[in-house]
Amino acid sequence: MSIDLRDLASPRNEAIPDFKAGDTVSVNVRVVEGERERIQAFEGVVLRVRKGPNGSFTVRRMASGVGVERTFPFNGKRIESVRVTRRGRVRRSRRD
Question: What is the dotted CATH code of the domain comprising 8-86?
């Protein structure tokens, strides 16, 4: 008897549209601070998209002249929504 790993993985968040490396996206993330909860927007360029049952994507933005990279899982419970702001092009090594 064989076990399919796709059945064990949690389902992909429906709030995430299809995008690829080079696109500019805005990710709305639920942030918990003490007992308060708020929505924080993180907008930047998608550096990479990892496929598979535990897939994730990495977004990079510039904040006060410093590059900030953040990785989000596709099945993350804290992601409220993802909006594609602009489609982009990337060099060959980052393509799908």
Answer: 2.30.30.790
